Amino acid sequence: MSFCEELFNWSLVFMNRAGYFDRHRRASVLLIPPISLCVAAFYRTYILRNDFDEVIVNLFKISGATVTTMRAFVVMYKSQAFLDFFVFVEKWYQGQQRDGEEVTLRKTHEFTQKIRKAAKTLLIVTMIILSYMVLIQLLATVGIGYRKLIVDVAFPGIDFYISPNWEMMSFLQCLYVAPFTFVSYVSYLCLTLIAISFGIFLMKDLQFKLENMNDMTDLEALNCIKKCVKAHVMIIKYHNHMEALFSVGSFADVCIFGIIPCVIIVLSTMDHDISMLIADIQMAAMVMTSTFIFFWVANNFVIESENIANAAYNCNWVDRNKEFRKYIPLIIGNSQKQLQLTAGGIKPINMEFFLTIVRCTYSLFTVLFTMKTGGDS
């Protein structure tokens, strides 16, 4: 098993088997049902416009499915860049092995084990939510419970709410479209979080090396600082890779996060089947939690990039020779520009931006709730 396969584990395996990286024909075939469902859902929700309640119920599901589908095409479009990114990470690991960096390799192994446990936990939570959603829909299909599709759809000339069309659409949604779309969303999210977390690990490892040069001889410290400069350049390149790969997907996450919380709160006030409501809230809670974690990790990425300059300045460079001292300004100078991850290259992803989105979300919730209560009165 390569280091990338071990680090990114099941998320990389799923995206590779789905054909996102090198088998685009397979991926395109797999995406046909979700795309068709999105079109049919958009037609029913925004063209037919049966009632406001239905628009609210479908809004975040359609948004999530659309974002996931569009993100899949972005990954396919940038497939070579993703493969280059994985090769870049693999070469770093091989370089550590070649240079005999035992401490870094040990820390890398410990970090990878923690990541695998976290990714496994996320996969288990995903499967629990999916299993519940599929079970409820299967029961509804055979006549037990609330007779409703996961996402309401319509198409000119076809009535999906009479037998056998309803049963076929219900089976398609719960046995293929919902699982494939949801796992695609989570796998991309998992890949993104792991990539950012690994970048934080690289920066902390560099800080550790800078802080532990005080007890070295001049020759050892000189060799160490040269490696640190190379490591810092590698981290900057790593950030550039991530910004190119995940910026567009981050923008989509930001957009959908502003919709989901207020929609679910409004949805909870409606007359709605409790089993379907529980499934909706589970999905929304997972998306909101994962989005918060995403912003928090991205914010830590920026903080750790700034800490590199502090670690370089705090080492005993004053007591070192002239050749050693000339490398310190290189690290401090390169650290002056924050290594920020952005949403579509427009706005940096940090906790300040997160709070701004929360405030905008509350405003949107107020508007939707007013429209709902005004329509009921």
UniProtKB/TrEMBL annotation:
Cellular localisation: Cell membrane
Keyword Lyase tagged: no
Membrane topology: Multi-pass membrane protein
GO biological process, one term: signal transduction
GO cellular component: plasma membrane
Transmembrane segments: 27-47, 122-146, 176-203, 244-268, 274-298
GO molecular function: odorant binding; olfactory receptor activity
Source organism superkingdom: Eukaryota
UniProt family annotation: Belongs to the insect chemoreceptor superfamily. Heteromeric odorant receptor channel (TC 1.A.69) family.
Protein's UniProt name: Odorant receptor
Organism: Zeugodacus cucurbitae
Recorded name of the encoding gene: OR43a.2
